[in-house]
Specification:
The structure is a single chain. By secondary structure, the chain is mostly helical. It contains 6 helices and 2 strands. It has a two-stranded antiparallel ribbon. It is globular and about 55 Å long. The relative contact order is 0.11.
Length: about 140
């Protein structure tokens, strides 16, 4: 049986279930998936603009503004004027964000561990290489 026609459905289903698992693991931590996504992308792309972070993290710009306001009030993020564009701000992590980022990495590790249960290291590596190639084919990974 050719399973390739099922690709899109299976990918969407895995993504949906992974998000559910992550949210389940995050219950009681005070972290939402949106917050985790924003902080994780900001860690990888520190100094980016709000609009770019919204694009990368797939968060509506107005929702991101509210989230950043809260994260800034909590002392996790700061906005600095972009020296190249007076209208824009660069986003930077405060040192106090490090424990939260460690918590996010631990939640991610636990979600991956459960997701990849029974899949050996070689299969995981091949799977990740194929996913990266698919992302590249569709315009690159985030």
């Amino acid at each position: 049986m050719d399973r390739l026609p099922q690709f899109g459905f299976l990918l969407a289903e895995i993504s949906r279930r992974y998000v559910q698992l992550f949210e389940q693991l995050a219950q009681g931590t005070g972290l939402t998936l949106t917050t985790c996504r924003a902080l994780a992308y900001l860690e990888r792309h520190e100094g980016i603009s709000q609009s770019r972070l919204a694009e990368l993290a797939a968060i509506e710009p107005m929702a991101l503004v509210r989230l950043l306001d809260r994260l800034q009030a909590e002392g996790l993020v700061r906005r600095e004027r972009d020296p190249d564009d007076r209208r824009a701000h660069r986003l930077l992590l405060e040192a106090s964000a490090q424990p939260v980022l460690r918590q996010i990495r631990e939640l991610s590790r636990r979600a991956r561990e459960r997701t990849f249960a029974g899949v050996d290291a070689q299969e995981r590596e091949l799977f990740m290489r194929v996913l990266q190639r698919l992302a590249d084919n569709l315009g690159g990974a985030r």
